[in-house]
Design goal:
Number of strands: 0
Number of domains: 1
Largest sheet: none
Strand content: under 5%
Distance between the termini: 33 Å
Order of helices and strands: HHHHHHHH
Structural class: mainly alpha
Shape: elongated
Radius of gyration: 24 Å
Length: about 240
């Protein structure tokens, strides 16, 4: 039998203290993965697919930004929050790391040391790819803010569907209806997969996209699956 001290890090006070750190680390890795995926998609389409290259990416950013600001205004929110999210994400990735200031310094044409000259040459050799990454980061920020705007709709539909599902479950239990752990698990796992696919599609789609065309079908399907999940919930409440 394992001693209590051997598993101390997994429970008790240590577990409670480590849980937020684990969550933050997981969220950071997820964000970095999505960011790299967004850059990869943008680089591929800018340099290999779109004839107008980076100009197309700029037009997508402008169109999505205008649409997101209109959506925020329609919901009674603050349109500046969309721009603020894009700027914050850009600052986090490029200003905090010094890449933005480095580019500004290199653009001044002042005399540089030998190491700085080497860095500048490398920077200039990859300047188009860096610019695509900068625009793509802002685009990702706009789309993240847009998804946050439709998140209340998803939560509302899930809650309503869950309450209705639990009500139907109570009726079925009173009438001797059967329960199904397999249907419960399948509906639950399908919701996770659906949300992941919807989020990645909304964030990485290489074209200007109205998130409502993704959010509304996603919310409807999520509601159906949530209702099915709780209708067949097997454990006693």
């Amino acid at each position: 039998m394992a001693s209590r001290n051997a598993s101390f890090h997994e429970g008790g006070i240590a577990g409670a203290l480590l849980a937020p750190l684990k969550l933050a680390f997981a969220l950071m890795l997820t964000f970095l993965g999505i960011l790299v995926a967004a850059w990869t998609v943008d680089w591929m389409f800018v340099f290999k697919v779109w004839p107008d290259g980076i100009d197309r990416l700029r037009s997508i950013l402008a169109a999505d930004l205008a649409r997101a600001r209109d959506l925020a205004t329609w919901q009674g929110g603050v349109p500046g929050a969309v721009t603020g999210t894009a700027n914050f994400l850009y600052a986090l990735v490029f200003r905090f790391t010094g890449i933005h200031d480095m580019g500004m310094r290199f653009a001044e044409g002042a005399a540089l040391s030998i190491p700085d000259t080497i860095v500048r040459n490398t920077y200039l050799a990859n300047i188009e790819a860096i610019e695509v990454a900068m625009i793509g980061t802002q685009l990702l920020g706009v789309r993240l803010a847009t998804l946050v705007l439709i998140a209340p709709l998803l939560v509302l539909i899930y809650v309503v569907a869950g309450v209705d599902g639990l009500t139907q479950r109570a009726i079925r239990r009173a009438s001797g209806g059967r329960e199904s752990a397999s249907l419960y698990r399948r509906a639950k796992h399908l919701q996770v997969a659906l949300i992941a696919i919807g989020l990645l599609t909304g964030l990485l789609w290489p074209a200007s996209v109205d998130v409502r065309w993704i959010g509304l079908p996603l919310a409807a399907t999520l509601g159906i699956l949530a209702r099915l999940q709780w209708v067949y919930y097997k454990k006693h409440l």
